[in-house]
Amino acid sequence: MNALMQALTKISPDITELTNIPVPQYGLREVLVRVRSAALCGTDLHILNWNQWAQGAGIKLPVIMGHECCGDVVAVGSEVKNIEVGDKVVAETHIPCGACYQCQNGEQHICNNLKMFSIHMDGCFAEYTVIPAACIRKIPREISYDVGAVMEPLGTALRGVNATQVGGSRVVIIGCGPIGLFAVAAAAALGAAQIVALDISDLRLAAAIKMGADITLNAVDKNTDQIVLKATGGYGADVIIEASGSPEGLKQSFRLLRKGGRVALIGLPDKPVELDLVKDVVFKEAKIIGIHGREMFKTWTQMESLLVSGKLVVDPVITHILPLTQWREGIELAKSGQACKVIYHP
Ligand SMILES: NC(=O)c1ccc[n+]([C@@H]2O[C@H](COP(=O)([O-])OP(=O)(O)OC[C@H]3O[C@@H](n4cnc5c(N)ncnc54)[C@H](O)[C@@H]3O)[C@@H](O)[C@H]2O)c1
Ligand SMILES: [Zn+2]
Ligand SMILES: [Zn+2]
Question: Where's the Enoyl reductase (ER) domain (predicted)?
Answer without folding.
Answer: 11-344
